[in-house]
Amino acid sequence: MLEIRALSRSFGAVKALDQVSFTVGAGRLTGFVGSNGAGKTTAMRIIMGVLSADSGAVFYGGQPVDRAIDATFGYMPEERGLYPKMGVREQLVFFAQLHGLTRAKAVANADGLLDRLGLARRAKDPVEKLSLGNQQRAQIAAALVHDPAVLILDEPFSGLDPLAVDAVMEVLRDFAGRGAPILFSSHQLDVVERITDDLVIIAAGQVKAAGATAALQARHAGSRHRLDLPAGADSAWVAACPGVTAVASPAGAPGVGASTASCTVLFDAAPDAAQAVLRQALALGPVNRFERVTPPLSQVFKEVTR
Fold first, then answer.
1. Does the predicted model carry a pTM greater than 0.85?
2. What DSSP assignment string belongs to 184-207?
3. Which one of 87, 190, 201, 218 is separated from 276 by 20 to 30 angstroms, measured CA to CA?
4. Residue 286 CB coordination number (10 Å)
């Protein structure tokens, strides 16, 4: 487990981090989200030893992180660091050997990552000849090629097309499956929602929320519920139920949404009132689906940072 304990760091009069604490569990994908200037990159640089903290410390496996431990981490910085005129495969092998891998292991790791990230056909090309998206894939491969104990990625999905995002997600999930803690920052909250186990939300240098992603979403779920009835079913009665304060279609327009497959009603109600709606629906006929609506991470983010 990676532990960040009470990190503080100022740049002149600007307090970039203010008593920042959170953990990144073994085998857990932890999203680190916040607006520009919130402190994400500063925290990551301190974790990697690129910056020093004014106070606080970073621990891995219960031990303070020093240069020897840092050397076992994988890091993709905000400023990309590949050699532009060097071939992709050549420099991946080079980076792996710098971390102590044998050449045979370095070659095997490099070729495996190039294949999985869709770069095998560009393996001999210099980085400067790659598109920005492919350069991003190569940078991710460079962070992974030495089989790091911990992975720290600053905006790994930036500039990637949907297929590349899926490929990177699969690689990161497999890497987490080996037990490594993974911390990554991203402004793409839809991607964060799809891949994370845990979430840390930071604003103005302070952690505003941290925990399992699903638990944070449930905590901010509010009173919105979803009721799916068979297509063509009468659902106008929902708006008249006691305790129901609003009825909307899935698109958010007033009224009831219908499709060829089902009739969907979104309504706001306290738990007891929502259960009464469900009981009435079941008394009238089949119910295809009933649930409390989980808010998107964008909504959670707005609520905890406002």
1. no
2. EE-S-HHHHHHH-SEEEEEETTEE
3. 218
4. 10
